[in-house]
Design goal:
Blueprint (H helix, E strand, L loop, with lengths): L1 H30 L5 H22 L8 H25 L5 H8 L2 H13 L6 H18 L11 H20 L9 H22 L9 H28 L1 H6 L1 H16 L8 H16 L5 H4 L1
Helix pairs in contact: 1-4, 1-9, 1-11, 2-3, 2-8, 2-9, 3-7, 3-8, 4-7, 4-11, 5-7, 6-11, 6-12, 8-9, 11-12
Length: 300
């Protein structure tokens, strides 16, 4: 009973994470309209890192002091924020947020391939293969093939989002090395390291003191930093330890329908007629990749 309750909690958190990251593409699209990508992401990591650091101190925790852990934070920052955040922000100046969401939703595939070919820390099963296929089928049904009509145009931007997706896959695997740390510590450490890298680049290339961002972009930046970054990364590092890297990245399948739903509610976008069938495929795919199989002992 306790195990079932714990799994229900983890799957609920997976849904929350998908919602937070599903909304992030809209926030980014609005933000980069008047704020250059490097400066936008530098501010995102700085604000999120500061919030997480304040929460850590409020909880009575302390950041690690050893250089080895901070070096791992730096690597995690490059894989999980500096490179992918900037690539996606730059790409969304040329492509729609919906298309970026679709392309970025392939992260479980890359995570699955990396774990199968390199780290092999998670078993390759027919159930997980089914989950990959069902998730991709669901995405296509929910969004509709017309949403993929932009493929082939602005190729550099689409390749940038795919490269960001590969980074996320690597981050999900590398993040397993923080087992034993409170989830807030690697979240804060990686955000602060990301800010250390990006803020000087922003000052050098964008001269942010000369910018005149719109109020919409500023609000999008704060919403992205507080909810889709600080809160989301705390959940992310927890799920890495409880659901595994492939299971955690499977939230990408939920992220697409949630992101589309946000567009329907707030931007007046419409869903295709096959959306509900797609939702069933998505749920089946997520379940296949996250719910652990019963052991033979339990089956008896």
């Amino acid at each position: 009973m306790q195990a079932k309750t714990d799994m229900t909690t983890e799957l609920a958190l997976l849904g929350v994470l998908a919602a937070l990251w599903g909304a992030s593409y809209t926030f980014i699209k609005i933000g980069v309209e008047t704020i250059p990508p490097i400066t936008f992401i530098a501010a995102r990591t700085l604000i999120a890192g500061a919030i997480l650091l304040a929460l850590i101190r409020w909880r009575g925790l302390s950041m690690p002091k050893d250089g080895a852990t901070w070096w791992r934070f730096m690597v995690q920052a490059c894989l999980n924020s500096v490179v992918p955040f900037t690539l996606i922000a730059a790409a969304e100046r040329s492509i729609d947020a919906g298309l970026a969401t679709i392309l970025n939703a392939t992260s479980p595939i890359f995570t699955f391939l990396l774990t199968a070919l390199i780290t092999r820390h998670e078993s390759v099963t027919a159930r997980k293969l089914f989950g990959v296929g069902a998730g991709i089928a669901g995405i296509c049904l929910i969004v509709g093939t017309q949403a993929l009509g932009g493929l082939g145009h602005q190729l550099w931007a689409q390749l940038a989002v795919i490269a960001a997706t590969v980074c996320y896959a690597g981050a999900a695997i590398f993040g397993r090395g923080f087992r034993g740390l409170d989830p807030m510590l690697p979240a804060a450490g990686s955000m602060l390291c990301g800010a250390v890298i990006l803020v000087p680049l922003s000052l050098a290339f964008d001269r942010p003191w000369t910018l005149s961002p719109s109020m919409a972009s500023i609000l999008a930046l704060f919403a992205l930093s507080v909810f889709s970054t600080a809160l989301a990364f705390c959940i992310f590092f927890r799920l890495i330890h409880t659901l595994g890297s492939v299971g955690t990245t499977s939230q990408a399948y939920l992220r697409v329908p949630i992101g589309v739903g946000i567009g329907v509610l707030f931007l007046g976008e419409s869903l295709g007629p096959t959306a509900f069938w797609g939702m069933g495929c998505v749920v089946a795919g997520v379940a296949a990749m996250t719910i652990p199989a019963r052991s033979r002992a339990l089956a008896r």
